[in-house]
Amino acid sequence: MKAIVTGGAGFIGSHIAERLVNEGYEVSILDILNTGDKNNFRSISDKIKFLNVNSSYISEMEKVDVVFHEGIYSSTPMYRKDNSLVWKAIQEFMAVMGYCVKNDCKLVFASSSSIYNGYPPPHTESMQPKVKDFYTEARYSMERLAELFNQMYGLRYCALRYFSVYGDREESKKEFANMVSQIIWKGLLDKEVVIYGDGSQKRDLTNINDVVDANLIAAKSNITGVFNVGTGKSYSFNEIMDKIETVIGKKIKRKNIDNPLKNYVDIVHADTTKSKEQLGFSAKIKAEDGIKNAFDYYKKLDTIPDIF
Ligand SMILES: NC(=O)c1ccc[n+]([C@@H]2O[C@H](COP(=O)([O-])OP(=O)(O)OC[C@H]3O[C@@H](n4cnc5c(N)ncnc54)[C@H](O)[C@@H]3O)[C@@H](O)[C@H]2O)c1
């Protein structure tokens, strides 16, 4: 079996690529090394083909069985700074979908729980998105275009709405890394963690290994549609800090400040019913275990990201 992973030098993409290689797939990675780094796929670098190109280069590629599309600018602040990233994401996505239709291959692509901003939990796929930022517009446009390509050209796809993904190998994302990584880095460097508000805001922390499972299940399934990839449990920032302190065995300095951000997401909490029943995916990794795995990885790094 052959696969293309766009964004395969990034956090999630490199983990997907590694699992695919371990399952015997021939893997090609397309990545512009923006937030990604070749170091992320060092364990498989002699077994994959890497191209330093953007995702639309896929049109030049030979036929594969499945495409995993993670390769777009990956964080909300990037789009706040440059809203032309919305059309770039869409333009490259059109090329990715065109390739999948032409080559009759399944497309599994990253979407986001940011689509639920403004809705009370639990967040379920049938909720009508109320878009409040450019990053989410790019994600929602991609989902709508995939549905249109399905209706018009029979595109087979799964859009995976990731909920707060954390784990090892986020260091090249720097300030865009998940809060778990950033808090562990601060703890290792004995630095203060700044929390917006009183720390009661909640996140549905989803471990990278569960996210990889969801991608592989989606790739092998015949189903098309949009699915949540979350755990169905959410923890407050204060609770997450407590868990990290338990794992690393020391207190981390906390500073609460007024929230400076507009449209800040207060609670993210997945309804996992559709993913369980239709896709057959359930997250398995407990937050405590996932945090421990991430800590065991970060404490061994020669250089802890010091981004503050
Ligand atoms: N990590 C999360 O919690 C989370 C949550 C929701 C959605 N997502 C989405 O999942 C995907 C993967 O996220 P991640 O956490 O691994 O981030 P990441 O930044 O580590 O990965 C993105 C990768 O794509 C590459 N890239 C960026 N623009 C590209 C382009 N135009 N063409 C080719 N490559 C490009 C980057 O260099 C990077 O290697 C992203 O699309 C992100 O928006 C992530």
Polypeptide structure, described:
It is a single chain. The mean pLDDT is 96. This protein has helices at 11-22, 76-81, 85-102, 134-153, 179-188, 208-220, 237-248, 273-279, 287-298; strands at 2-6, 26-30, 48-51, 66-69, 106-112, 157-162, 165-166, 193-196, 202-203, 206-207, 225-229, 235-236, 254-257. It is an alpha/beta fold and 308 residues long. The chain folds into 2 domains: 2-164 and 207-229, Rossmann fold (3-Layer(aba) Sandwich); 167-203 and 233-268 and 285-298, UDP-galactose 4-epimerase, domain 1, CATH 3.90.25.10. Helix 1 packs across helix 6, helix 3 packs parallel to helix 4 and helix 5 (179-188) crosses helix 9 (287-298). The chain is globular, with a radius of gyration of 19 Å. The protein starts with a strand and ends in a 10-residue tail after the last helix. It has a 7-stranded parallel β-sheet, sandwiched between helices. Helix 1 links the parallel strand 1 and strand 2. Bound molecules: nicotinamide-adenine-dinucleotide. Residues 6-7, 9-13, 30-36, 54-55, 70-74, 92, 110, 112, 162, 164-165, 173, 178 line the site of nicotinamide-adenine-dinucleotide.
List the helices and strands and how they pair.
Blueprint: E1 2-6, H1 11-22, E2 26-30, E3 48-51, E4 66-69, H2 76-81, H3 85-102, E5 106-112, H4 134-153, E6 157-162, E7 165-166, H5 179-188, E8 193-196, E9 202-203, E10 206-207, H6 208-220, E11 225-229, E12 235-236, H7 237-248, E13 254-257, H8 273-279, H9 287-298
Parallel strand pairs: 1-2, 1-4, 2-3, 4-5, 5-6, 6-11, 7-10, 8-13
Antiparallel strand pairs: 9-12
Helix pairs in contact: 1-6, 3-4, 5-7, 5-9, 7-9
